[in-house]
Amino acid sequence: MVDKNRLVAALLLKNDSSAHHCSWGQQLDKKVLHSIEIPELGNLHVPLAIEDVEKLKSIAEPAPHGNGLNVVLDPNLRKGWQVAGMRISGLFPKDSLQKTLGELCAKALLNLKLGWLLEDCDSNTVDAYIDKLVLYESGGHYKRHRHSELEQGICGVVILQIPVENGFNGGRLKIEHGSSTAHYEYHEGSNHCHFLTAFRSGCKHELEPIKSGWRVTLVINLVWRNAFDVAKIPQSVQLIPEILELLTEIRESVDPWFKRIHQTKHGKPVIEKTDCCDILHASEISSDVVEQLSELVNKTQISYNASHHRHEEFNNDLSFSPPFELKITNIARFHQRNLEWQQSADFDDGERKPCVTHGQHQKESIDMLVFLLENDYTLTDLTFFGLKGQDVRLARLLLGGNFLEVHLAILNHSRSQVPFGENPSFVAKLEHWVNSSNMLVPFKNVQINANQIVSDFKTKSQHRTHQEEIEEKNMNFPQFAYHQPVLVIWPKYQSFRIKCLYAFDVLLDELEHELQITSHQKAIENLRRIISVCRDEPLTVFLDSAGVPGERTCRLLRLCIFLRARQEGLDLLELMGMDFTNEDECEIDKEVRFEGIRSNEVALLVAELECQVTGWSACSGFVLKMISPVRLSSQLAYIICLADHLMDRYCSEGALKILDRVAYLLPKLNTSSISSLGQTDIDSYVNFVIECERDPKTASAQRVVCFTTLFPRLDSYQQCRLIVDLRRRIRFGGIHSCMQLYQQMCRALPSCDLHAPGPIKNVIVAVVSSFFQLGDPELILLLMNKICLKSTSSNQSAEENNLVDVLLLSHEIWELATSSDLGKTMLSNLVKAQTSSLLCMLDQLTIPRQEIVSAWHIRETELVVPNFKAKTSLLDNLSQLELTSDHSKLIRDARLALIVAWIDGLCQQLDRETPVVTPHPNDPLQLNVTEFLRTFIQMEKVHHQDGRQPIFVDFSRLFSKMCLTRLCKLILDLRQTESAASIDMRVIASCFNLCRDLSRQFVEGDIISFMKPSTELAVKIAKWLFWLGDEVVSERFAHKICTCVSLEEENLFVKEMISSSKLWSLTNSAPASLVAFHILLDRHIGYLKTVKEPVFSFEQPLAELPTYPEVEAFLRSSNEKMSYHKLASIFHARGFADDLTKLCLNNGWCSLKARAMGSTRSAWCEIIKTQDMHHANMQQFQAVQQELSKMLSLRENLGHKTLGGKGDAEKMSDFNTSNNCILFSSGKCEKKEPEIIVISD
User: Fold this and answer.
1) pLDDT tens column, 890-919
2) pTM of this prediction?
3) Cα separations (Å) of 47 from 33, 104, 141, 1055?
C-alpha cells in the first residue's frame, strides 16, 4: 500500500530530509582500469608507477580551491594537482567505459538511493562526465568545501581511486551532509586495488593530509538533465540537492509499487511475474545481480568529445571539462529488458516451463493515484501548458521524477451528495486523457475508487468540484454530475500494461507501425509482453464490447505470422482455448467467457499460423481445446471455417479431427445450446460433412449417425430448411450415405412442431413438394395431418396457423393437387382445415354477457381479439390466384366454400349475441363482418373487370340475424367504401344483391325509433337508399318517414331530407328514388298548407304572473298601457322592467316596452304593449307561403320530368340555402309552460 500521507507531506514540502544514504563507498573486487592514455605521456599502465605519477604531475596544474570564478591557489586550503578530463584520450581496455564504468555509476546511484533516476528506460535522463584526474602527494589535502557545479544539474559525484605503486598512508575522506558524517579510509590495498566513493550533490567533503605516497583519483560527475526544469517548480526549494531529497522522498512513499521481489523455495531471487519489468530497490540488489549487469551491458555509449569549442566554452571553469559522455540510461534500459526477459517465463534448471492455465480470470489491481486539481479548466485548457497556480508546481514536481507517468484527465461521476471518501462504493470514470506531451490519449473505461484519490488534495479541491444537478425519476435524493479535472500518476513500468488495458488498439497500431524500423527480437519481445497482459486481463482485452468480435485476436495472429513468432503464436492459441470468469460476479451468476474463434478471419489466420509457423502437431492440442460444447453454440460456423481452411492448406488431418470432434459433441449439447445454433452454423457443418462424404478417404459413417441423432433436436424451421436444401444437393450428388441421411430426416420431420413460431411458412411449400418427390404416400399424409392439426385444435388460437394459407396460395401446390389422387386428397384436407380454422377463430369472439358490460369500459388497446385480416386476405389472394391459374375452377370452388364458411361462422356468433346489448363501436364481430363484405365486393369487382362470372351468395340469412345498429353501421361503412371506389358495384349483380338484401333487412325494422335522436343519420341512410335505387326499399323507407308524425306537425326527418342537395341529385339515379322523393315532398307540402295566418290582438289569455296579479290582468286584457307602482325603489323598478320584457318574449305572449320611472324612493314602471311580435309572425307566415309556392312549383316540374341536369341540382341547392332559415323556423310555435317571473328585493 502506498503511504499517501507521506506522499502528501512530500508534495507539500513538509517532509523531514534524511541524511542517510548521501554517501557510499567500497573496495572493488576486480581490476577496473588497465591503463590510461594521455597524448603528452602515452599509455600509463595501472597500477601507476611512481615514475608515471611524476610524469602526470609534470603536465598537471595546481588544484584550485573555491567555487566558480572565486577560486584561489592556496596550499593551506588545497594542496594537490589535477589533469583536466579533456586531456585524457583513452582508457584501456577499450570497453572499460562501456562495461565497468557504466556498471559502477549505476551501482553508485542505486546505493545513494537515486536509483529512480535509472527507472525510465525510454529516455536518457542522466549523463556521466569524467571531470578530472586528481593527484595528491605526501602532505596533499583539501579543506571542507562544496563545488558550485553541484547546483547546476549535478546529482552526484563518483570518485574512482586508482592503485599506485607502493600506495599511500593517511588521506581519510570525510563527507558531511546535515548532521551526518561518513569517513572513508582506502589506504590499505591502495597499491593494487580500486576503490569507489560516491556522494550526492550538496555534500561537503574534506580530504585529510596524505602522510606518505601518492593518491590518484578519477572524478566523474553525474548530471541530471531534468534538474534545471525541476528547479523552477518549488518556490521554497532552490538547490538541486534539496530537489533530489524531495523526489527521493516521493519515490520512497510510492516504493510499494516497485517492490516485486520475493524469495523462491530454492532461496534464489526471482522476479515476480508481471506484464513488464520491475525496478529493483537499491537495498534489494545483490552483488550477483550487479555482476550480471556488467556482463550484459553492451549498449552503453561513451563518446569522446575533443571539441575545442566546448573546451573554450568552459576554459574559465577549471573544474568542468567533460571529454567523455556516458549515457547511464542505456544501462537502465538493458537492466529493464533483462528483468522483463526473466519475467516472461518461470525458470527451473534453465528450461522453460509451459504456461499454466488456472481456468479463472485473476485480475490484478492497477497502481494509480489521482490528485484533484485546485483550479477549473475547460477541455481546451486542460493541458500541462494551461495549468495554473499550485497545479503547475504539483505537475512539474511529479514529472521531475522519471519513475512516474503523469497524465491529466477529467473525473466524471454521478452520485448523491456524499463527500469523497465517505462512500466506500464510490466508483468514477476518468475520461479525456492528456499525456505529458499535451497529446490526447485514447484511454477507455478507466475507473477509480475513493482509495485512489490522495486525501489532502481531495480535501483542498473538493470545494472546486463542478456539480450539475440531474433529475432522476423515482429517486428520493438529489443527484449530481461531477466533472473534476485531475492529475493521475502511476509507475512508469506499468505504462505498457495500462496501454494494453485501456488503449489496446493504439498499442497494436504502434507495434505494427514499428515493424519496419525496429529489430526482429525487439518486436517479438513487445509481442510477448502484450500476450502476457492478455493472459492476465483476458476479459478486458478480448471481450471489449466496443470492438469488432475477434478483431484484436486477428491482429495478434497476423503479428505472430509476420514475425514467425512460434512460441508466442502457441501461447496465443492456448489463451484462445482458455475459459475466463469474472471474480466480481457471484458464484450463482458467474458466467464462463472465452475468446476462441469469433470470426471467419480468425479461422483463416489460425490456419495460416499452423501452415507457416507452428505445424499441426504443435498446435493441435490448443486448437482442439477451442472446440467445446459451450463454444459450439456460438462459434460452430467459424470452427467449421477453420477446418475448411486447414483442408485447403493440405492439413487434412487437422480438418478431420476438428470435424470428428464437432460431430461427437453436437448431439451432446443441451436444448438451449442447440436452439442457439443459427442457420449459418448448421449449413456450414452440413455442407462440410457432405463434401467429406464425396471422398471415400474422408467419409465417415459415424458423422452421419451423429447428425441423424442431432436432427430431431433442431429448431423446427431448421429441420424444414435442411430438408429443402438437402433435396437440391442430393439430386446432383447421388451420394448413397447422404440419400440415407435424407430419408431418415424426412421420417423425423413430422414429429417436430411445424406450428412453432418462426419462418416455417417461407419453406413449407418446398417441404411439401420435397415429400411428394420422395413418393411415399404414408409420409405425405402424415405431414399433411401435422400441418392441418392445429387448425382443428379447439384449445389453441388458430390464427397462428398460417401454413394452410400459404399452401392454398401456392401455384406449385395446385399443380400437385391436379397431378394425382393423392394431390386432390391433400387439397381437400387443406380446404377443410381452413374452414375449421375460420370457425375456430370466430368461436373466440363469443363473450359471456356478464363480461360484455364491463368490456366496453376498457380501452381499445386492451381488447384482445383474433386477427381476421389474414383470413380475409386469403380470400382476396385466392381470387387473384384464380385469375392467373390454369386451375381456376378448383380455386373458385375452394373460394366459394370458404365464403359459405364465413357466413356460417358469423351467423353462429350472431345467434349467441345478447339482443339487448348495444354493440361497442369497435366490436370485433362487427369489424370482421364489414371486412369480410368489403373483401367479397372487391373480389367481385376484380373478376368483373376480367370478364368473369360473379359468385351468387345468399347473404340474407346473415343480415336477418343482425340488429339495426349493426345493419346501420354496415350500411355506413359500405357507403364510405363505395364513395372512393372506381367501379360502381350496382352494375355487378352479386354486389347489388348484397346491398339490396342489407337495405331491405334494415328498413323492415323500427328505423324511426332507431334514427329519432339524429336527423343527420336519417339523411345518410336516405342517400344510401336513393343511390341504391331499389323500388321496394325506397318506397318503404319514404312511407315510414312520412307517417312517423301527424300531418299537422312538422316532420324534421322530411325537412332535413328535402333540404339536402345531395339527396336531390340522387333522384336521377333510379326511378324508385324519384318516387320516394315525391312522397317526401308531398308530405312537406301538406304540412305547409296547414300553417294559418296569425291574427293580431293585445289580449294574451295564456299569460300567467301570479306574483303580480295586476300585471297579469293587464296582459290578459285588451288595454295597451299601464303603470305599476308597487315597487320599492328605482333599482327594483329597473329589474322588474327587464325581467318582464324577457318573460313575455320567451313565452311568446306579446311584445312590450317596460321602463322604470320616478326617483329613488318613489318609483314605478310604465308598461306599453307593441305589435313587434305580430309583425315577426306575419313575416314568418309570408315566408312559409313563399316556400309553399316554390314547393308546389317544384312538385309540378317533377311531375313532368326528372332532375337529370346539373343545373336543376344547383338551383335546388340555391333554394335550400336561401330558405334554410325558413325551413327550420316556419313551424308552429310549440306550446310551452309559462315562465314565472321572480324579482328579488
Assistant:
1) 888 888 888 888 888 888 888 887 665 566
2) 0.63
3) 9, 19, 22, 141
